[in-house]
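The instructor's notes for this session suggest beginning with a concrete chain rather than abstract definitions. Hand out the sequence below and ask the class to guess, before any prediction is shown, which regions might be ordered.
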Amino acid sequence: MLNPDLLDRAVELLRRGGVIALPTETVYGLAANAEDELAVRRVFAIKGRPATHPLIVHIPGAEHLSQWARVIPDEAQALAKAFWPGPLTLVLPRTARATDAVTGGQDTVALRVPGHPVALEVLRRMGGGVAAPSANRFGRVSPTTAEHVQQDLGGDVDLVLDGGPSTVGVESTIVDLSSGAPAILRPGGLATEEVERVLGRAVPVRASTTVRVSGSLASHYAPRAGVVLAEPSEVGQRVEALRAQGLRVGVLGPVSLSLPGDVQRFDVPGEPAEAARVLYARLREADEQGHDVLVACLPLASGLGIAVRDRLSRAAAPRKE
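After discussion, reveal the predicted structure:
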């Protein structure tokens, strides 16, 4: 836990309209008082994020749900009880406390209780909610350490709280419970199978929905280098084809991959939870080495492997600069 004086300073900054970097178990967040519209607008400006792209409100505990959501289905209560604090975000019909600045003008609000002691203590001391998207420029690789935040945002942030490396490493799973049957709008740090186990039914992952949520754009989580996706059996062939074009090629994948000796590998383990934990750090390392393109070995499409595949697919999507 951080020095209490530093935590007090963070809370005071939030109450006065400041913007701070807050560690969570998923990624570091760029946090502002969710009820301070000017502070929230500053978050959008720092990130370069479209104002219609909604934010997730982080709250101290499930007992605060009714302050932000006017309808809380039994299934939302069950998921909150099972997985909060943790990498789960619930989308619910909003109360007036959730402003258009946070929701992007929608009638829904995304809510989460983070599973990091520093974030929870700041929220507890503040007694309210903070809007906290990832603490990086919009569309780029999310930060999982305080150093990443400093590299990306520098003096644009009033305070960076260092809570160590994020232990989950990818953003939260977003479950929509705002109308009818539940659906996953963004795979993340909580496996779909775990959501289905608690709810006792299949929960679809929606590629298309009328509800806008964080991290749902086709191109997102992108390093400066291009990203090419490959199944394990295709990696070597993709590497050789790209090298033949005169490109400097790196590989994101497990040590078990057979590669030419002069190709730099950035170890992303085959075990999905470990892959999720280190993915963003490896993408950043590859950028620092100046590669033109990264060949990303896709993990199995199960458990947290679904979230890793989602992030890699968005990193590989054509982007608009």
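Then share the key points. Residues 214 and 317 are 17 Å apart (CA to CA). The mean pLDDT is 92.
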